[in-house]
UniProtKB/TrEMBL annotation:
Cellular compartment(s): Endoplasmic reticulum membrane
Superkingdom to which the source organism belongs: Eukaryota
Domain GPI ethanolamine phosphate transferase 2 C-terminal: 519-673
Lineage: Eukaryota, Viridiplantae, Streptophyta, Embryophyta, Tracheophyta
Gene3D superfamilies named among the record's database cross-references: Alkaline Phosphatase, subunit A
Protein's name according to its UniProt entry: GPI ethanolamine phosphate transferase 2 isoform X3
Transmembrane segments: 12-33, 475-498, 519-538, 544-562, 583-600, 629-649, 656-675, 695-715, 750-768, 774-791
């Protein structure tokens, strides 16, 4: 076989393997993160008609002025709007159990006393409260989308809407905008990203500094008196971030939580008394208080636990429109149910891709005929969505006419069940309309019709919610098989290359380093980590696997270091200029990694199943230790270690001095912030603390960016003047110990950039993290420096890929 033919074959196999890998990865991604079918466009007048194949939208309605379009909707819907204005108050991160309790138990006494006005509204039946279950991921933007559109976005929605955060799906704000509503927004700037250009007035605030719990809400409330006195808006959105920040700082039991709840209660009181209870206000106003998600005991969110998905929903209107309070708060709803409920209350079409259901407690606000009409409209909307999800779903003169279960969709009778449930409710409804009944019998039949509609709606709702997360097993399996085949092709190519090298190199055994135990274990770790990703339980407790494997690997490296030391003479701990001194430095680095790793392992009980177990952080909090002292010591040592790492350069160049000075100033600002702003945890942050944090951000940003941009240009100029003498002082540079670099300028530039980046990251985390985690940041920095010192000692022969993999593993455990 000629060399050219061998090269051509290897190239062909490599290209084929890459192509198969891309194809397999694409199938896996689209199978594991399915893109749900969605209805395009916005709902219009067709949403008030039965969803037959012939219920097409009248295109001329797009040209109608807002008041005529609103009249058309009211005429077709047969449901007059119950309210004229809407105040949507979003309290970011507020768990529903803070206001409504949990498992039929009242809320915490301290929380109830912090919101006396809200609790009085609930007790008097003026407000209706619900536990609104949020779908994961429990972060702000997707939850706001669910609230206003009633749809649950797929995980690939972000990829398909890359570089844009505008909500393109049909939603309530878009429907209100078509009717000419004047909308005002004050609060989280996420609303401005989702709905650019539709607000008459707005003042967006950002969560730039998570420890700001006061100014971020004052910037919202400062507009409240003015907006409540105005009569030119139809929708007022208030999004408060302070409570979420309180949770991130100190968790659910933070001493700042009760004052923040009291502040939110005052806002509710002000809105309710100025609009709903104001006799001079002729417009009927509905106040809706919601939270986008809940929070864990530690104040975090993003997952799917009950604490994170338990969001609040309050409807506050006039007392005449309230029903029995006790029967309302005992039932939970889905967060997506908010969109259809508000659409029906305000007389606008339900958004196209809504999967929510009209909230049962709110349907009592309508008259008998209107209640049934509202449920009918909600059912029609879900039928349209079912037709989109399942193309074989029958569409003739009626949505289920001529339906047959064998029309190409194997759903174990799901579609037939939906048709049966819908037709039962529709027949009862038609019979109720056409038949003159007595009042008592009418009420009884009405209850049967409502129950029949809700049976269909709930079944369709659950099916659509699960459909959004269904994963086609065949597509995923094909993707996995394709990627496996690609890996086998790559292994065959590598084997062929090695075989070719073996044939050409007669003395190959003299040129290849033997495999050692640490190298074999490093390769085994790769397969262990890959295999562990196949189990959800392993993924949830991933940190335990990493801690065990890294500790084992460190012990193997320590063993190899000791074996290397035993081959030579006794180690002189002060002789850092000879090989044995380097061995001592390597051993010290390993011991540092092991000790820091063990402390980090016991600092927090991570994962999902073992968070309740005791750990170091819980012990420190329960013992009422002086956390501020630990925080100050951590910042001080972080500054010392970072400056020490910079001082290890062989030459104290001017750029190093400038970088070190800027870093020192940033560290002193962090110390000043801790002393001045966090000496009393019961006091909320103020504007001065926020300004100081912004100054720290700016200083660290300028230092880091300036170092990245300037050092690669300045270092070669300064080093060229003393190049010969510099090479003789390589022992002072950690990365120089072990091998002479052919590019000292590049090496030193990367070293300075790395030191500045790591140090700035640690200082930023010390600024943002809770005081209990300050020591964790210090231990992470020590691990980073220890791993760097260990790998910079190039005395032990090892394969290059092994050294790079070991560095990746150590950085991985730092991230965990």
């Amino acid at each position: 076989m000629s060399s050219s033919l061998t090269c051509n074959r290897l190239t062909l196999f490599t290209v084929a393997a890459v192509a198969v890998q891309i194809i397999g990865l694409s199938f896996f991604v689209f199978g594991f993160f399915p893109v749900k079918p969605a209805l395009s466009g916005d709902s219009g007048s067709e949403s008030f008609r039965s969803p037959t194949c012939y219920s097409l939208r009248n295109e001329s309605e797009k040209d109608l002025p807002p008041h005529e379009l609103q009249s058309l909707y009211q005429e077709l819907s047969d449901i007059p709007p119950l309210f004229d204005r809407l105040v949507l108050m979003v309290i970011d991160g507020l768990p529903a159990e803070f206001v409504l309790g949990k498992d039929e138990r009242p809320p915490n006494q301290a929380f109830m006393e912090s919101m006396p006005y809200t609790q009085s509204l609930l007790a008097n039946g003026v407000a209706k409260g619900y536990h609104a279950k949020a779908a994961p991921p429990t972060v702000t933007m997707p939850r706001l989308k669910a609230i206003v559109s009633g749809a649950i976005g797929g995980f690939l929605d972000v990829a398909f809407n890359f570089n844009t955060q505008v909500l393109l799906d049909d939603n309530l704000l878009g429907q209100f905008f078509k009717l000419g509503w004047k909308m005002v927004m004050c609060g989280d700037e996420t609303w401005l990203k989702l709905f650019p250009g539709i607000f008459t007035r707005h003042d967006g605030v950002s969560s730039f500094f998570v420890k700001d719990t006061v100014e971020v809400d004052k910037n919202v409330s400062r507009h409240l008196s003015y907006e409540l006195s105005k009569n030119d808006w139809d929708l007022l959105i208030l999004h408060y971030l302070g409570l979420d920040h309180v949770g991130h700082i100190g968790g659910r039991n933070s001493p700042l939580m009760a004052p923040k709840l009291m502040e939110m209660d005052e806002v509710v009181k002000m809105i309710h008394s100025s609009t709903i209870m104001n006799p001079d206000d002729k417009k009927r106003t509905l106040l809706v208080v919601v939270s986008d998600h809940g929070m864990t005991e530690n104040g975090n969110h993003g997952g799917s636990s009950y604490e994170e998905t338990d969001s609040l929903l309050l409807f506050i209107g006039s007392k005449s429109q309230a029903s029995d309070f006790g029967s309302v708060i005992s039932n939970g709803v889905n967060q997506v149910d908010i969109a259809p409920t508000l659409a029906l209350l305000f007389g606008v079409p339900i958004p196209h891709n809504n999967v929510g259901v009209m909230i049962p407690g709110m349907i009592d606000s309508f008259k008998d005929m209107q209640q049934l009409r509202a449920l009918q409209l909600n059912s029609w909307q879900l039928l349209r969505l079912l037709q989109k999800q399942v193309p074989s779903f029958s569409c003739r003169s009626g949505p289920c006419d001529g339906f047959s279960g064998d029309q190409g969709y194997n759903s174990n009778g799901s579609m037939e069940k939906f048709c049966r449930l819908y037709l039962r409710a529709a027949v009862l409804h038609d019979s109720w309309i056409s038949t003159e009944l007595s009042r008592s019998d009418g009420r009884e039949d009405k209850s049967r019709i409502i129950a029949a509609y809700y049976e269909f709606l709930i079944n369709a709702n659950q099916w659509l919610l699960h459909k959004a997360t269904d994963k086609p097993a065949k597509v995923i399996a094909f993707g996995v098989v394709s990627m496996t085949l690609s890996c086998l092709i790559f292994f065959a190519v590598i084997y062929s290359i090695i075989q070719e090298i073996c044939l050409r190199e007669k003395q190959l055994s003299n040129g290849i380093l033997p495999w050692h135990l640490d190298e074999v274990f490093s390769l085994a770790v790769i397969f262990i980590l890959v295999i562990s990703m196949g189990s959800s339980s392993m993924v949830e407790e991933e940190q335990y696997i990493w801690h065990f494997l890294i500790s084992t690997l460190n012990m193997l490296l320590l063993r190899k270091t000791v074996q290397f030391f035993q081959k030579g003479s006794a180690c002189d701990s002060f002789a850092l200029l000879n090989g044995h001194g380097r061995i001592c430095l390597r051993a010290s680095s390993i011991f540092t990694l092991l000790i820091c790793g063990r402390i980090l392992r016991g600092w927090h009980q991570g994962g999902v199943n073992w968070t309740y177990l005791p750990d170091i952080s819980k012990w420190l909090e329960q013992s009422e230790s002086d956390l501020q002292l630990i925080q100050l010591a951590s910042v001080f040592l972080t500054i010392i270690f970072s400056l020490l790492s910079l001082s290890l350069l062989g030459r104290r160049t001017k750029i190093v001095l400038v970088v070190g000075f800027n870093f020192l100033m940033s560290g002193l600002l962090v110390l000043h912030h801790i002393v001045k702003s966090e000496h009393n945890a019961s006091l909320p942050s103020n504007n001065a603390a926020t300004s100081l944090a912004q100054m720290i951000y700016a200083t660290l940003g300028v230092t880091t960016v300036g170092t990245v941009l300037a050092v690669p240009w300045i270092m070669p100029i300064q080093l060229s003047e003393t190049c010969s003498s510099y090479h003789n002082s390589s022992i002072s540079h950690p990365s120089k110990i072990g091998s002479e670099s052919q590019y000292p300028e590049l090496r030193d530039s990367l070293y300075i950039i790395g030191c500045v980046y790591v140090g700035s990251w640690c200082l930023l985390q010390l600024l943002l993290q809770q005081p209990i985690n300050s020591a964790v940041m210090l231990l992470i920095l020590m691990q980073i420096l220890a791993s760097f010192l260990f790998f910079s000692q190039g005395m032990l022969q090892r394969k290059q890929w092994v050294e790079e993999w070991l560095a990746i593993l150590h950085w991985g455990i730092v991230i965990l």
